[in-house]
Write a structure and sequence with these properties.
The chain has 519 residues and is α+β, with helices and mostly antiparallel strands. Helices cover 42% and strands 11% of the residues. It has a three-stranded antiparallel sheet, with helices on one face. Strands 2-3 form a two-stranded antiparallel sheet. It has a two-stranded antiparallel ribbon with strand order 4-5. Helix 11 runs parallel beside helix 13 and helix 11 crosses helix 14.
Length: 519
């Protein structure tokens, strides 16, 4: 060290500087610079002699971050520790004896966002893995060595608020599961990943829970999100339907058979008959219903019509990079994938934007210069808008149709991001738009008008459905469209009571032929 830095004193200063840059100071903050910005909202370089109380508080945390890191709830221990450090600063002549009493009387003021530790070990591990890849492929001066020496600062895409919500959701969800299955208490694990729709940035990542095998201690979070392979089950089915939409073999109203069907097995083993979750078959049903209810038999029938190769190609196009097996059971999730791949596939179907997940937003040099910034998403998915619109609308049915597997999310008791419209039955029948809003949810647009969710585009699918004479869509003010109301049972019930109002209103708005069987 002396030979490298020229003197023993300079070598000791370098060791101290590295220690100060990487020591843990609570709330997932490493180094005094990060701690000062987090606890006080002030850069470390901006602290002056008048901020001796803040400097003493940071120095006091080093002894035991678990006890002396300040929070908004209780700061008695951090306060006593800070005052002890101030007394030591007087004794060692870092501050005057006149300064110490006034500093000791100052209460601890923290930045408003200090609510407790944000634990995201999976995200931190992912950052380090991505950093290694950048060092090998982007620039030689970006890597673990530069990070450990304090030469670079990494900014991640993780959103603290969303990470906190993801951690809580994982814990609460698994707790509820264990209440329903007491024999599995303490033995269940889970994982969560949240991606930004526009560019696939990782906003939150949790690969495990704090309580495991009935021990309430910090659980070393396994990297389940990125490398761990799991069978996705029925989460694979939308990709199968998208493959069929791409071929033009189906649309949402195509009748398909929910009937007993078999798949071949390997070797001399007998064929396997496919059953549904409820051990029932419903006969001929529309694709929309089959997707919403996750009918296994229909999914297998679908892949046998369009061939497994088209399903595998569609999976690659929406971001599945793992090699999938070429057999029909892949349709039901037999081939394993990572959670990150599956989440990105759904993100691509929702946004129509090609992007690979990433967690490093930018890297700065110690001097503040940006030496790396993640490039923008490259391009849109090479898909016909009608095909993506169909799979998006089909997935909405999973929540909105009364028989959908996730219809519970559409209940009034479920906390929605936007408040549902509250209107009377007569008002709902008197205004066709309000009737659909009551089912789909509404929000106030910037122009101040109620906006239908979802809005249907005036595409070839609508033209085909209108030509068939079905009560498919209603033209609403400001060119807004309401999707097929005949699938929403609450609307039917209301309109049976006030049928004439509904019919008159439809005619007044110049809507399409009405099949009175639905009123």
């Amino acid at each position: 060290m002396r030979k490298r830095y020229g003197s023993k004193r300079r070598a000791k200063e370098e060791v101290l500087a590295r220690y100060a840059s990487f020591i843990y100071l609570g709330n997932v903050r490493y180094g005094f610079a990060a701690a000062s910005l987090y606890y006080f909202g002030i850069l470390l370089a901006e602290l002056t002699a008048g901020d001796a109380d803040k400097a003493a508080l940071l120095a006091g945390i080093t002894k035991s971050p678990g006890e002396y890191a300040p929070t908004l709830a209780d700061n008695q221990k951090p306060l006593r520790r800070r005052n002890q450090i101030l007394a030591l600063m007087v004794k060692n002549h870092f501050i005057t004896a006149q300064t110490a009493p006034s500093s000791q009387q100052i209460p601890i003021h923290l930045a408003a966002h200090v609510n407790g530790p944000i634990e995201a070990p999976a995200a931190a591990e992912n950052v380090l893995e991505e950093l290694k890849g950048l060092g090998a492929n982007v620039a030689s001066d970006i890597g673990m060595k530069q990070l450990l020496e304090g030469r670079i600062q990494i900014y991640a895409t993780i959103d603290e608020r969303i990470q906190r919500l993801a951690n809580a959701a994982l814990e609460n969800g698994l707790n509820f599961y264990e209440k329903r299955h007491p024999k599995n208490t303490g033995l269940v694990q889970g994982l969560v990943v949240v991606l930004r729709n526009s560019d696939s940035a990782i906003l939150a990542e949790a690969g495990g829970r704090r309580r495991y095998k009935e021990h309430n201690a910090t659980y070393s979070d396994d990297k389940r999100v990125t490398p761990s392979m799991r069978q996705p089950g029925s989460a694979r089915k939308p990709i199968v339907y998208l493959a069929a939409f791409r071929q033009g073999a189906l649309d949402l109203d195509t009748p398909v058979p929910d009937e007993p069907i078999s798949v071949a097995t390997r070797g001399d083993e007998p064929i396997k008959w496919i059953s549904n979750f409820d051990n029932e078959f419903k006969g001929i049903i529309p694709v929309r219903q089959a997707l919403a209810e996750s009918r296994n038999a229909v999914a297998i029938w679908n892949v046998q019509q369009i061939a497994i190769d088209s399903v595998l190609k569609t999976a690659r196009d929406v971001g599945i990079r793992t090699l999938l097996h070429r057999y029909d059971a892949t349709t039901l999730g037999a081939s394993e994938v990572t959670l990150l791949e599956l989440a990105n596939a759904y993100r691509m179907m929702a946004s129509a934007i090609h992007a690979e997940p990433y967690v490093i937003a930018k890297i700065e040099h110690s001097g503040g210069d940006v030496i790396y910034s993640h490039p923008l998403a490259c391009c849109a998915v090479n898909e016909n808008r009608l095909e993506l619109s169909m799979i998006q609308e089909g997935l909405r049915g999973v929540v909105r149709l009364p028989s959908g597997t996730a219809h519970a999310l559409d209940a009034r008791s479920f906390p929605h991001g936007k408040q549902h419209c509250r209107i009377s039955e007569r008002q709902r029948c008197g205004k066709r738009s309000d009737a659909v809003l009551q089912i789909a949810g509404c929000r106030r647009s910037r122009r101040g008008a109620n906006e239908i969710l979802p809005r249907c585009r005036q595409d070839a699918g609508n033209e085909r459905l209108r030509a068939s004479g079905h009560p498919t869509a209603c033209r609403l003010p400001a060119q807004r469209w309401a999707w097929q109301d005949r699938f929403y049972q609450p609307v039917k019930n209301v309109c049976r009571k006030h049928g004439r109002n509904c019919v008159q209103n439809r005619r007044r708005l110049g809507q399409f032929p009405i099949n009175r069987a639905y009123l």
